[in-house]
Amino acid sequence: MWKKSKVTDQTATGQGGPSEAEQEEEKKAGIKKRSKVPGVMITQFIEVLPEGKSTPDFLRKPIALTIQEGKLAIFKANVCGDPKPEVTWGRAKGDMSDTETFQKRYDEATGEYTLEIHRVSGEEADTYKCYAINEYGKAICTAALNVIEVGFKKKKAMEQLEDIGRGRVNQNFVRPCVRPSFVLGSVDPAEFRKLLRKRKGVDKEEAVKEPGEIDERFWEIIMSADRKDYERICAEFGVKDFRVMLKKLSEKKKERQEEQAQYIETINNLKHIDIKGVGIASFEFDLELKDLSSRIFLYKDGVMIPYSDEEEMKHSLKTVGKKLIFSVRDLKAEDAGLYQVDVEEVNLFSTDFKIPTVDFIVKIQEVKAKEREDAMFECVLSQPCPRIKWMGKNATLEEGEKYTITVSEDKLIHRLLIKDCSQLDKGIYSAAAGIKTCSAWLIVEADSDPASHGKKKTRKTTQAGGTGLDLGKLAQEQQEKLAKERQEQIDAANKARAEEERLAREALLAPPLPDTGDGDSGEGGDSGEGKDTGDGKNKSESGSNKSKDGGKSVGEMKDSEKEGDDKKNKKSTDDSDKGKGSSNNGIDPNANGEGDGDSKGRKGRTGPLIPDTVIDAEKERDDKYKKSTDVSDKGKDPNGQSGTGETKEYTDASGKRSECTRQGPLLKDTVIDPNAQSGTGETEQYTDVSGKRSERTRQGPLLKDTVIDPGVQFVSGLSNVHALIGQPAELMCKLSNDNCEGTWYRDSKKLTADDGHIMSRDGANHKLVINRCQEEDSGKYRFEADGRKTEAMLNVKDPPRFDPDDLSAFSQPVIVKVGNSTTFKLPFVGREPMKIQWYRKGEELLDDNTTKIEKSFTQSRLLLSKCQRKDTGEIKIKLKNEHGTMEAISRLIVLDKPTAPQGPVEVLESTASCIHIKWRAPKDDGGCPVINYNLERQQVGRNTWKKLGDIPGVPEYKDNDVEHGRKYCYRIRVVTEEGVSEMMETDDLTAGTLAFPSSPAPPKVASAFNNCINLTWSTPTDTGESRILGYNLEKRKKGSNLWSPVNPTDEPIQEKKRAVTDVVAGNEYEFRVYAINVSGLSEPSSPSEFIFAKDPKNPPGKVEDLKVADTSYTAISLSWNKPTEEVGVQDEAKGYFIEVRQAECIDWTRCNVTPIILTTFTVKSLKAMAMYWIRVIAINDGGEGVAQDLDNYILAMPPPVRPCFTDNKMKSFMVVRAGNSVRILLNFEASPWPEVTWLKDDVPLLKRVNISNSESSSQLLITSSERSDSGIYTIVVKNLVGQESFSVEVRVTDDPKPPGPVELEENVPGTVTVIWEPSPDEKRDDHLHYSVSKRDSTKGSWSTVADRLFNNKFTACNIMPGREYHFRVYAKNDMGMSAPSESPTWGSERRKDTFVVNMPAYKTCDLRTAPAFLVPLRQHTAPKGYECYMSCAIKGNPKPRVTWYRNNISLNTNTNYLITNICGVCSLLILRVTPKDWGEYNIQIESALGRAESSTKLTVRE
């Protein structure tokens, strides 16, 4: 079987735990803690850690490795802790002192510790430990190293032989699956030395099983399989003896059960591995262990693999109660194999995982469908597959009313049809074949017609989707490709077999090598004597001729003959010859002799021997039938001397031996090898299956072997054919022989050429052609040749068909004017009954006031009367019968007047002499193109309209006949062949408006001196749709309100700069500028900055004490001090510039355009969590100073804050009516920016749920809720500091439906039991409960007698005789209350009559009764968080005392339970059920006359 590595400690997550000694040591050493990383054990040395200190822990633990011998193995680990822990490495066995093999490293940049093991071997296979220790604690984790040893090692084999002798086997390393046979049991040292001598080819010999031996893998699989799979598994492994197999299987199962009994109580519900979802496979079983600390291991093909309880890992284990679910994610081809689960060293379960080698040639494509239309997904596979898995919205789809799943006959084309699409069907659909998947979107487009909103739309018969490719052709090409590959494999196998036979013949023709084996070869000296030292007992006389070689002669020759492909028994013949002739076989090929035989009870054979032909030198022996032949011949020299005789020895099936002697001369044997010489005698031995031997002497001549011809075979058989009536059909097959005739049959009746069939043969191809198929030609056709046959079905169909001329005429569009009638008519042929349907724009037409459909056996006519413009569209006729469907499409065009042009009107140009306008074409041209547009114009203020005439069909017009400043209005109509449309009237349009330029930007000071100030400015953004003619510049002295012009107003400045010389040194000035175009002056610009008219100063120095005041995700606040002044070196700073750059950039970006005068600044619009360099530059009139940088880069993030929710009143429960929106808004604070994840019932959300996240809040929105949206929604806010989560239970429901009929029963006098049928919503809403109201004849109002009932029965007390009672039952849930269900009237009103009381004489009776239960307690199951109401009815006189118990603890004094006793009805109410309330409840009633008890059990449902 599979060699598994022995686990001495935990190797990976889920693979066991520390030993008991380590656990005891940890308990003594300190406090055991749980790590966030699975598989890490932490021990804390002191009880309370100092603030800011922590115990060591692993951020990344080393994982288990399986490495081939001679490779490099590396274990990696990352640790954390304060103070920094010290990391050491160790191993379970042996030391690590060899520094060349074990090298330990530490990378300061990444903080990663590594252990490198160079040139690993089986000696390094062990469990390695990593320790992280500081003064406050230690952390330990382990990882196993498994080594795959390559090749055969004598030293290792000898060590294992010694271990086997002592009863020990080392299992600390993984061996290949094929192991030497001497490792499996006790081996004799002599045999071991023999194996060492025959080292070559030992691997092939190891793989050969003994006769009757069954692969151990077979037993592992079948012991965990179902009985229905036994036959398949046996056929796969070639097991044929079922009786022996079942007997041995029973014994092995009994042995396994005895082994499993050491560790487990029960194991059941075994489910084998299967692909469950996209890229996920799992298997599961129920397991109950005796010792919960027992370790569970997982193996694949004998190699232990790590697993975890986290579902993100490759292999994971999920435990749900007693159920264990193993999952394999991200499936690949190498994941196939035998998976085994062990508890300690005992195997529990084995399952074989096979992954089909199939892929998608054509994947499913995105489909766009309209509402109430069918949608089709289709794909093509590379290998035939009977069924693939279709999934929609993460749910498996099955065949039903909504979905139709079809597979082509060749099992290559798979289709999914989604019927009657709605908005709920849109989403992602996927197809899974093995481990290959493909997915695509289904987009359902809503109906754009607003008139149909809210109405149920008509079902459409059209179908959307499909790849648009000829899938049938692709599948046929793939099928031909597969057939070609199979044929190539067969040809390659035949070629390899022929090559083997050729090599065998060449080996036979080559001179044989002398065999020096022990007891198997004969020896010959110079005298030609050969002595048989093998198993044969016949000895031949010495010859007179000397051997040519004078050496050792070959004493054994093996013949193997293969007779036909269907024969499985093989022979081997051992000939031991001693005679005269050559040293090869002791016989000259030209020598004839007569044998005298051996006289010991053996028969002599007489007569000549026909030459034997040896086909091959040596073949594989058969396991059941063996034949060996020992020949002892005595012959003469090559000149023709006769031999002396031959004796044969046979062993029959019963094991008895017999001998016979052949008499007469021996003819020479003919051997293909020219160097081989024949003997003069032959004895054959046979060994049967039981191993017994017998001998016999063959009588008569030896004939040549006959190879049985398999005969004629079909290279390709007949295939089913579908043909249309009246069309030709062809059936064809191909034989393996070109000269073979055959016979055709139909329904077992022989066909002839007189039957109207054409039968032809082209070499090996045979063809049957039917020119015009009729219905009687349908049936089963058979072709027979040389005793072999092939069959196929011919199906002649008569589907609906159209005449091509009629179809062409029908396809022409029909044009009709509005209000008129039209007719569509189309003849057809086809088998009855025929279903005829007419459609207009995809909707089926039925007879009504404007539509009439006429049907007959040969044609159908559609009459449409009073056609309207909206009727324009596609007209389709659809015919269907049992043989197929046919469609024909035409088009109806209804002509009408066009609609009015569409606005709004766009003004392209408006000047003093022109108005140029443009509009949009009409929405509907009425079926005819636009010829002209008719325009009219009215000047605002006048009553007349001026006709401008018709313009060509271009929707724009330029009116040059306008007056400056006047307003005009236009009317526009559309003109077509069908008439004139309604008019469209424009707004008032003004001709020739003034357009002034916008204000320029403030002027900038280029430089300043005592006698001159140089200014520049830019062009205004809006030039007023005309050219800028120039600029006017003005100045103002500081403290003055008067602006004075710099240039004359009639001489505008042409350039965008000016040197102002009219200044006084030492004064401060500001400037503004005007722009001028043809319309006039613009508004003045904003004033420039004040500037002194003085010579430049020295630049300032560096700012001082630059530091960061505050940070956030988008901003960084800075502060600094002014630079110092030094006369003649650096002057006072007048402002500051702040520049910033990202760490990965080299260019600085200035944050402020104008200098700031404050010594604080906030840099904004930063990228969150990005690194920035910042500097400040001081500036004055002398220029910019030297920049001052921060000492280090700054991260754009606020100070670290652990995530926490800021809302004080967060709702943890929400009820929403179905169809309404669900909105959950939660505010939080966290730094750095957290990662926000929403889950629904611990799984990711669907795409229909919208999530909006911001820096401090997150919102979940479901626009239109459904009942399936109910669940617990959890938000997880996580950052580097920590994480926080909050859950909100959302219940989507609706007003409940009323309960069913109400019945009344009287079980106890004075009470009425109300029984009702449950509401239809009870199964869908676990919060649904009932309320009961009562009204009697003496009161007119209804009163509630019971509420929050979770059952369908209630007992009403205090029912007075002589009154009528009515009951109502309501269904309630979180949303509201249903309509009531009325009960029948109970009782009757008694009339008050005058009566006389006659007091009879009576004697006093004893009315006392012992306590008893009229209605006992019943079982209860309540949802968690809801109320639970228990009640029972009792009797007893005197009134008994009532006591309630839970798990034998009295509840009468417990304030968490409401206990009442009204008129013998005892009740207990639990206001809010929790899992702690789970248990057994009983009620005891007792009085002086006795005691009674009733009990029940409460189950709390999660």
Task: Give a short summary of the structure.
It is built from 9 helices and 105 strands. The chain has 1502 residues and is mostly beta strands.
Can you describe this structure?
By secondary structure, this protein is mainly β. It has 9 helices and 105 strands. Strands 1, 2, 4, 6, 9 and 10 form a 6-stranded mixed beta sheet that branches. Strands 57, 58, 60, 61, 62 and 63 form a 6-stranded antiparallel beta sheet that branches. Strands 74, 75, 77, 78, 79 and 80 form a 6-stranded antiparallel beta sheet that branches. A hairpin with a 2-residue loop joins strand 41 and strand 42 (749-750). Residues 1-28, 164-208, 514-692 and 694-699 have low confidence and may be disordered.
In quaternary terms, these chains amount to single chain
Main β sheet profile: 6 strands, mixed
Radius of gyration: 51 Å
How many helical stretches? 9
The total of beta strands comes to 105
Q: Which helices and strands occur, and which strands form pairs?
A:
Layout: H1 20-29, E1 31-34, E2 41-44, E3 54-60, E4 65-68, E5 73-82, E6 86-91, E7 102-107, E8 112-117, E9 126-134, E10 137-148, H2 154-166, H3 189-197, H4 202-207, H5 216-222, H6 230-237, H7 242-260, E11 264-277, E12 280-289, E13 296-300, E14 303-304, E15 315-320, E16 323-329, E17 337-343, E18 346-353, E19 360-362, E20 367-370, E21 374-381, E22 389-392, E23 395-396, E24 403-407, E25 413-418, E26 427-433, E27 436-445, E28 463-465, H8 471-509, E29 523-524, E30 530-531, E31 593-595, E32 626-629, E33 646-651, E34 657-662, E35 664-666, E36 684-687, E37 693-696, E38 714-716, E39 721-724, E40 729-735, E41 743-746, E42 749-750, E43 757-762, E44 765-770, E45 779-785, E46 788-797, H9 804-811, E47 814-817, E48 822-827, E49 835-840, E50 843-844, E51 851-855, E52 859-864, E53 873-881, E54 884-895, E55 902-910, E56 915-920, E57 932-939, E58 946-952, E59 956-959, E60 967-976, E61 979-980, E62 984-985, E63 989-990, E64 1004-1008, E65 1013-1016, E66 1030-1037, E67 1044-1045, E68 1057-1060, E69 1068-1077, E70 1080-1081, E71 1091-1092, ...
Parallel strand pairs: 4-10, 20-27, 21-28, 39-46, 47-54, 82-89, 98-105
Antiparallel strand pairs: 1-2, 2-10, 3-5, 5-8, 6-9, 7-8, 9-10, 11-12, 12-16, 13-14, 13-17, 15-16, 17-18, 19-21, 21-25, 22-23, 22-26, 24-25, 26-27, 29-30, 31-35, 32-36, 33-34, 36-37, 38-40, 40-44, 41-42, 41-45, 43-44, 45-46, 48-52, 49-50, 49-53, 51-52, 53-54, 55-56, 56-59, 57-58, 57-60, 60-61, ...
